[in-house]
């Protein structure tokens, strides 16, 4: 599958701009089931109509928030009303959203290096996310960070890889965020938690500062897949080495893949 062939399963909302259902992606022996795994940007500005879409049309049951504590992640007040369970599982953030400047400076402008460092610290959290998905009635689940690109991209890539989704399809899904990046940029500029990012861009005199979260680099997600596929036992072995069980992995594969 190429990026041109991929038709993202967008869920159009007013208050979030990068939400999509991953159903339909090709995998070994089948396709990804719809209404199991969704990805997106932050949900801080959802309208009542947006919430109704997620609650009634999607029947959302789980939300995994990958944001760091300084981004003030929290369970929305409407989650309990809709029976949604919230998991906060922060992944290291080395983009311009991060306040970890010393570490971020090591990978300035190099998304492949950035993703590699993020993945280095992500294994145990990825195993806990897998457990959340399979050990309770938490699907459909929406995974998100701030923009729904970097931390979400890494997490989704690993989860899809362990399920047997074709590598080209994982890359095509990652690239799909580029279609909504301008909308995401504008939304983050309105969010007080991320205004420092836009101030940094303005101070640099460019819309594309060196450590910008508004770049799509397919080499970076290829690098993530290279690491997990090269692990002993492949992506499944990577997750097992960080605490996932064989039963959880096989359960996830059965849950997300619709056989031909």
UniProtKB/TrEMBL annotation:
PROSITE patterns given in the database record: TYR_PHOSPHATASE_1
Matches recorded under InterPro entries: Prot-tyrosine_phosphatase-like, Tyr/Ser_Pase_IphP-type, Tyr_Pase_AS
Source domain of life: Bacteria
Family recorded in the similarity comment: Belongs to the protein-tyrosine phosphatase family.
PANTHER family found in the cross-reference section: TYROSINE SPECIFIC PROTEIN PHOSPHATASES DOMAIN-CONTAINING PROTEIN (PTHR31126:SF1), TYROSINE-PROTEIN PHOSPHATASE (PTHR31126)
Protein name: Tyrosine-protein phosphatase
Species whose genome carries this gene: Frankia umida
